[in-house]
Each structure stands twice: as structure tokens, then as C-alpha cells.
Amino acid sequence: MAMALILSFLETLIPNIVPIPGFKIGLANFAVLMALYLYGFKEAVIVDLVRILLSAILFGSFFSFFYALSGAALALTIELIIKKTDKFSPVGVSVFGAIFHNLGQFLLAGFIIRSLGIFYYLPFTLIFCILTGFFNGYLVTILKDRLKNIKK
Amino acid sequence: MKKNDIILIAIAVLILMPLILLFLNSKNGDKALVKSDGRTIDVLDLSVDGTYRYENKYGFNIVEVKDKNVRVIDADCPGHDCINKGFIKRNNESVICLPHHFEVIISSDNEEYDVVVQ
Q1: 3-state secondary structure of B33
Q2: How far is CA A63 from the centre of its chain?
């Protein structure tokens, strides 16, 4: 659990490094996915909540907190379901999570401004998130077994 | 990695790529719809340069039209994503300011024919 918290803390440093508006590489989800594979659902939820709270306090606002929460909640739910089916490796789980993370945020944004205009950008966002989702999932694949050994 | 992972990524890319190509081929628009809470509050002619100020209960945004491009140049929102977005000009491109429920979206008079599939 302590390690999960450290991971989530490390993750909060990431948004500073990538200054492109609206685009993050989602190492956040790496930490969450790692917690999901190493510890379980409850721990993943805690890591997710802590990281969203921390980054909202550090960089964001009341508003960005709910915005981040909408994507994360949907992503984590989907990741859990996909993991349960056991038909995908962490890569597939991560890509699914990335896609639904973005879908969730687009839906919330569309709902808030009551317009479908932003969905124009969805395909562009999704192509990038598949890439980052793949990257995160691959990292989890190669690291989870090693970290499991350390845990013991 | 499992076979399903590759199938998932392949299907997603196959669906997304044509959409991206289609959107990138959108023609430049000739008007901009300014929306607040989903309602169109103004229509800007892109052939006329100018600066416009909009204010609603959430805050203000200042929109600039220049050389058939549109951008938000100032706003009192916390993130300033709308300003960082920069210029837009193609049909259906938009700038949104989420905290202000504010949106500027490019459009054309003959919108049905604005996309050419090659």
C-alpha cells in the first residue's frame, strides 16, 4: 500500500513535464493499473482517488477535480471488467482504460457546454491515447512480475 | 501481449484513421457560431476581421477574427485552455471554454458539402 502511494505521488509530478494543453501521457493510469494488478480493485480505487485529489490540490481547481474524476471512474470500471474477462493482457486493459477515460471526459465536457462540437476532436485524442495506453500497459506487463517478487 | 490486444488496437486504428483523414480534409469555414450553454448567441462572418467580447454568468471570453481564422485572445477562466488552443479555421473545428460553458465553432453555409472524401 505504501508503494502504491509512492507511485501515485510520483505520478503527480508528471503533468508538469508535459505542458501541451489537454494532452498528458497518462502515467497516472500506469500507477493505477499497477495497483490493480499488484494489489487489487480496492487499492486501485484508492490510488486513483489520491492522485486525483493531490493533482487537483496542486495544479487544478474544484472544477478540474470533477472533470478528472469522470474520466478516471469510467476508465477504472472498464479496466476492472476487461481484466475480469481475462481475455486481454495489461496492454489491452490499459488501452480500453485509456479510450474510456477520454470518452468519459468528452461526454462530461459535451454535457457541460451542451454541445457536440468537441467530438470533432475525439478521433485525434483517441489515436494518441491508444499509443499512451499501449505504452502504459506494456510497462505494467514487464514490471508487474518483478515488483511482485520485491513485494514478497 | 495477447492476440486480443492486437485485434483491439487494429480495430480501433482502422475506425479512427478514416475519421482523422476525413476531418483533416475539412474545408475552411466561412462563419463562426458563438455559443453559450449550447445556445447560439452570435454568428461571426470570418471574412470580416474584428474583436468581440462575450460575457455570461460564468465569466468573459474575447474572440478575435483575423484572416478567416478565429481564436480566443483573453478570458478570465482559470485554465486558459481556450487561449492556448490558438487559431481555428476548418469546418467543425471548435474552441471551448469549459468553465464558462462557452464555445466557438466553425461552420459553412453549405455544410453538407464541406467534406471531400478522396
Answers
A1: strand
A2: 18
A2-151: CATH topology: Arp2/3 complex 21 kDa subunit ARPC3 (1.10.1760)
Task: Return the SS3 of B36.
Answer: strand
Q: What kind and span of H or E run contains A113?
A: helix A90-113
In chain A, the residue whose alpha carbon lies closest to the alpha carbon of B83 is A21
Of B16, B99, B101, the CB nearest to A123: B16
CB atoms within 10 A of CB B18: 11
Q: Is residue B17 part of a domain?
A: no
State the complex-level ipTM: 0.82
pLDDT (tens digit per residue) in A59-115: 666 777 888 888 888 999 999 999 999 999 999 999 999 999 989 989 998 998 888
Cell numbers of A45, please?
480505487
Contacts of A85 (CB under 8 A, 6+ apart): none
The DSSP element (H or E) to which A32 belongs, if any, is helix A27-38
Whether residue B9 and residue A112 make contact (CB cut-off 8 A), yes or no, is no
Q: What is the pTM of this model?
A: 0.83
